Inverse folding.
């Protein structure tokens, strides 16, 4: 009779994958809007202490609501990073007023500088580069400035489907990073396919753009919700991942989770420590609580909520 061969199960490999993912998730950031923040009783119950929380500035949101949200996040022990969308800022005086209010009333010293999704500018600005050129952020002592990255291109910037204008803008931002004392990084649109993201990040570095990349990730959500947001936000080729999933009736009603996408990126980062994707930025399209719970379940000790960590 042949001896039974007892092989170890997949646990060790799973543990390696879990460790890589946990390491990759360290220092993750997440995004809120004032109206979604109002629904959260206490962010300490959801997020690790000191988490960077982007505050999306949607057209029509009063600056008072934005500053109040930033002040609340700061008071609860988090690191607020408001959006500065160029196309909804009337002029340099308005920009300076916003910057000074954030700094004075909420202790903000960082921002995401972007063009914004408005088709017609409200005033003299239409690009993030124009905002940076004013020198207002440096004058206010902002220590960190993030700008937008587009792993799948952006048809608003390059209507012909190329990446010429996006690439030119990235080279400009790279040069600007060498003139400012602020730390800079690329915060990207969310996407769903790891392979092309890795190729894009490597190509940037090969072409002299070595700004750290904070990769955009869609948090857990219903498939229909993700497809709707993806089409509205101009997500490109990786949308096919969701469309393929929608054709599988066994998965149609299950919520999407970013495990496969993040595990692939985490494994690549573990094997290539110099890989220029350095952090994860979550878009909580299915709700901040669902996203925070997913991060806790997949990040272990590094993503313990602030309230729990204080016990």
């Amino acid at each position: 009779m042949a001896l039974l061969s007892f092989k170890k199960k997949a646990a060790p490999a799973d543990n390696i994958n879990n460790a890589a993912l946990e390491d990759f998730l360290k220092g993750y950031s997440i995004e809120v809007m004032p109206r979604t923040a109002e629904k959260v009783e206490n962010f300490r119950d959801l997020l690790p202490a000191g988490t960077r929380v982007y505050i999306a500035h949607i057209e029509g949101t009063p600056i008072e609501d934005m500053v109040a949200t930033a002040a609340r996040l700061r008071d609860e022990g988090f690191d607020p990073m408001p959006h500065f969308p160029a196309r909804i800022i009337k002029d340099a005086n308005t920009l300076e007023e916003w910057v000074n209010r954030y700094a004075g009333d909420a202790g903000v010293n960082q921002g995401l500088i972007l063009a914004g999704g408005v088709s017609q500018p409200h005033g003299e600005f239409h690009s993030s580069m124009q905002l940076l050129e004013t020198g207002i952020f440096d004058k206010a002592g902002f220590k960190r400035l993030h700008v937008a990255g587009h792993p799948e291109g952006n048809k608003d910037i390059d209507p012909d489907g190329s990446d010429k204008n996006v690439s030119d803008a990235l080279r400009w931002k790279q040069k600007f990073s060498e003139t400012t004392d602020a730390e800079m990084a690329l915060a990207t649109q969310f996407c769903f396919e790891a392979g092309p993201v890795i190729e894009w990040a490597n190509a940037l570095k090969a072409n002299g753009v070595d700004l750290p990349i904070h990769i955009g990730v869609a948090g857990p959500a219903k498939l229909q919700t993700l497809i709707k947001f993806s089409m509205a936000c101009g997500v490109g080729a990786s949308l096919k991942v969701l469309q393929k999933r929608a054709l599988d009736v066994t998965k149609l009603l299950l919520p999407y989770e970013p495990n496969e996408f993040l595990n692939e990126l985490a494994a690549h980062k573990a094997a290539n420590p110099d890989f220029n994707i350095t952090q994860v930025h979550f878009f909580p399209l299915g709700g901040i609580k669902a996203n925070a719970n997913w991060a806790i379940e997949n990040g272990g000790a590094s993503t313990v909520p602030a309230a729990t960590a204080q016990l």
Observations:
- The mean pLDDT is 85.
- Residues 28-309 form a domain with the TIM Barrel fold (CATH 3.20.20.220).
